[in-house]
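seq/struct pair 1
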Amino acid sequence: MTGATDAGLDVVDLTVRYGGQVAVDRLGLSAPLGRLTGLIGPNGAGKTSTFNACSGLLRPSSGRIVLLGEDVTRKGAAARARRGLGRTFQRMELFTSMTVAENVALAREARQAGSNPLRQQVATPRQWAAVQAATAEALEVCGITGLADRVVGALSTGQRRLVELARVYAGDFRMLLLDEPSSGLDKAESERFGTILRTLVSDRGIGILLVEHDMELVMTVCDELYVLDFGALIFHGTPAETKASPVVRAAYLGSEAVMEAAGLAERGVG
């Protein structure tokens, strides 16, 4: 468990079952504030099930989810969001007929409304000003201020990914779960995205738990990594330690492209 000053997200003995199948087996991990933590593994390793349990979209069979020092295992997704947990999904959930600024503003509006959505319709001038300020800051941090008035449906995939990140940032969440956020990005866009993630962590003190298949991005931006295989934790360490682990290499056998990108192939380890 992390200390009181850096407590972000702690997963304690998490088990997720679907019928008789174990998707996650007694997983333990910590993703502190001010750190970028990666959760990686082959397809079907249990990463999405872990994210769904952390965000409240499914009830675990056993174990606990602790958010910012509070046990939220029995809290729903909305309650966890109000307590500071934000999440993105593999499939982007943006309103394509709305502008970039309108999409980003929605996160802060929803956060202010809390459990009473009517508050979004009757915001005070002070609340409205707070939404505008949060939106402007998020657009600037993510480098998309120039896109504020563009309709999201007209943007490229890379631009939409930045809008998605700006929206979750505008929600003033302390802890972010990012699920395949670089999907669809080219190399240059992925590098830019990684730089923004590091800024959020180092300059803003946000905690990030990242599920990502772009191993070059993972190895560049993450402070530490947890590796899952068949629902079980098989390794935990720094990116350098992960690259050198024969256990991790074995888990990725049969996926040579992934191994090469991560530097996990034998000749990349030295």
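seq/struct pair 2
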Amino acid sequence: MSDYGWNQEMPITLLAKMKADLKTAMLSKDTITRDAIRQVISEFPKLTIPLILESGKKSFRCKKEDEITNDDILSLIQGLVKSEKVVLEIKKETSSPYLEILSTYLPKMADKETILAWIDASIDFSQFKSPMQAMGPIMKHFGKAADGTLVKEILEAKAKS
């Protein structure tokens, strides 16, 4: 299981790593990992590029493999993780093998202390009418590594103080 997963420091794209992991999982008959990776790959048709046809109509096409970015795939995985957490909540469970596999492909999330330290060092709240308006720059800095809900809670706490 430790062979699976991905992070930004790897010299390989997320798509290439997932394909390699899929092959490894299939060869080792690891059905849970195989199915989790296939689930992510099955979401790729959701990745589209807008087009304007000759008639002027707006349309879209699916992204080709070389157009799919790491961020595209991370967004898909985060969506799957979110829906899996909802299912687990209903079942009154905390985790599943599927969730654990998906999590190995997500970047390590920034914790509350890291986010707070960056906010204190980088954000001048006097520029904003309310602390919540700092959400944009914070999320831009952390990208997919910060949980928007956590950032919102931190900013709400700052607004009260």
